[in-house]
Design a protein that fits this description.
Helices cover 39% and strands 28% of the residues. With 108 residues, it is α/β, with parallel strands linked by helices.
Length: 108
């Protein structure tokens, strides 16, 4: 069973994603913001951290914070960033690839 930390500021969206992951046999822990992530990672080792961003402007800073947190771990989880909203070109994916973060877009 994969263990996933879902970082999503929208409780309704986070609940829907967690339900879908549960159906796929994933254990999901939800955090509303990045400030709680260090403690959660200490208490709950995870395989993947999924960052859901509702803003095209600040997702890179959040992704960097999470990447820096997990890079110091003995067995770092993969980091995935889901950008909500319309596709805005390849810049996000290129930036993510440079940082070792997978970036996908969720259409509204």
């Amino acid at each position: 069973m994969d263990r996933i930390l879902l970082l999503d500021p929208d409780p309704s969206h986070a609940s829907g994603v967690a339900d879908a992951l549960r159906v796929a046999s994933c254990q999901t822990i939800i955090a509303a913001n990045v400030s709680g992530v260090p403690r959660l990672l200490q208490v709950h080792p995870v395989d993947v951290v999924v960052i859901v961003s509702h803003s095209a402007s600040n997702w890179m800073a959040e992704a960097e914070q999470v990447r820096n947190l997990v890079s110091a771990m003995e067995n770092p989880p993969q980091v995935l960033c889901v950008l909500r909203g319309p596709y805005r070109g390849p810049e996000g994916r290129v930036y993510g690839a440079q940082c070792g973060i997978r970036v996908i877009y969720e259409e509204p």
